[in-house]
Amino acid sequence: MNENENGSIPKISDKKLDYVECMSEFANDTVLQLTLRQMQRQFKESKFYAYMTVAIIILTMSGPFGTLEHYNFLERFAYWAILTPTTYLLASGVATIVTVSLTRKNLNSWLAYICGGSTAGIIVGIFVWLFGVFLDQSFGQSISGLLTAMTYTIPITIGVTMLFKVSEKTSEDKLQTQMSENKFFERIPKHLGRDLISLNSQDHYVKVTTSMGSELILMRLSDAITELDGLDGIQPHRSWWVAKKHAAQIKTDNGKKIIELSNSDIVPISRSKIKDVSDYLNKV
After folding, report:
1. Which of 5, 46, 138, 154 has the CA that lies 20 to 30 A from 235?
2. Are 258 and 252 in contact (CB under 8 A)?
3. Counting Cβ atoms within 10 Å, is residue 5 exposed (0-12), middle (13-18) or buried (19+)?
4. Residue 77 half-sphere exposure toward CB, CA atoms < 13 A
5. What domains lie within the chain, and their CATH numbers?
6. In the chain, what are the helix, strand and coil shares in percent, each to the nearest 5?
7. Distance between the two ends of the chain, CA-based, in angstroms?
8. DSSP result, 47-116
9. What is the DSSP letter of 28?
10. What is the gyration radius of the CA atoms in the chain, in angstroms?
11. Cα 222–228–230 angle (5° rounding)?
């Protein structure tokens, strides 16, 4: 935290803590940092691997892009086992970068998702085509083969990104209902979004961390927790509050219990709260 030359903490006279009045030593995440963190989170979710397995099996059995006619079962399985997760991560990364960039420029969110999905479809189509060229697939090396690949990939990536948008909208509606009765979110700058990860007490301030970045706001942690009543979270340490959905796992570090969050932050657990925290986070 920055201090004045005399060592005192800067004062904020106005009680309303808007964006200009929020003091922060944490730069906002870049689009690339946000994208990498979201992709890292996917790798930690078991459902990601389940979806990949199902997709690989379906693609192996159906054999699109001419693979059914030109490869046997094992060859198709190997082909899609390589191509499916690679193209998914490529599409996810491209779509996120484009969508977040356009959204931050105040473009309509639905249009931003469509643009993100379309761009991802073009990039994935080129990748699939180049992959075929690398394997010397005679049925996919021509320009017409590239266009054919894109006619498959663009609708798929647009559809997937729109599903994410619909899912996000549903989550936002639920969160908005909670926020309408929650004074704490009135203090947070709009650019941070509302996907709260953690709160950390720092002197007279609370460091608020969301999936979009961090800010310091002038208030006590105890007051922040009181205002967050109703949100699914817990205070594992006198200086911390964490959202349950972002508590990735409990680990042991140098004999001390800690919580690893979805953004890779590490939160200490007080000895007196180890059992309560463990029971709470493991509760379905």
Report:
1. 46
2. yes
3. exposed
4. 6
5. 31-179 (no CATH), 188-282 (2.40.50.1020)
6. 55, 15, 30
7. 38
8. HHHHHHHHHHHHHHHH-TTTHHHHS-HHHHHHHHHHHHHHHHHHHHHHHHHHHHHHHHTT--HHHHHHHH
9. P
10. 23
11. 130
Distance CA 249, CA 139 (A): 47
Please state whether beta strands 266-268 and 196-202 pair in parallel, antiparallel, or not at all (unpaired). unpaired
Phi, psi angle pair for 74, to nearest 5°: -65, -40
Q: What is the pLDDT of residues 154-190, one digit of tens each?
A: 998 998 888 877 776 655 555 555 544 467 887 888 8
Identify the CA nearest to 33 among candidates 98, 97, 119, 99.
Answer: 97
Neighbour tally for 259: CB within 10 Å: 24
Amino acid found at 159: G
Q: How far apart are CA 257 and CA 181, in angstroms?
A: 34
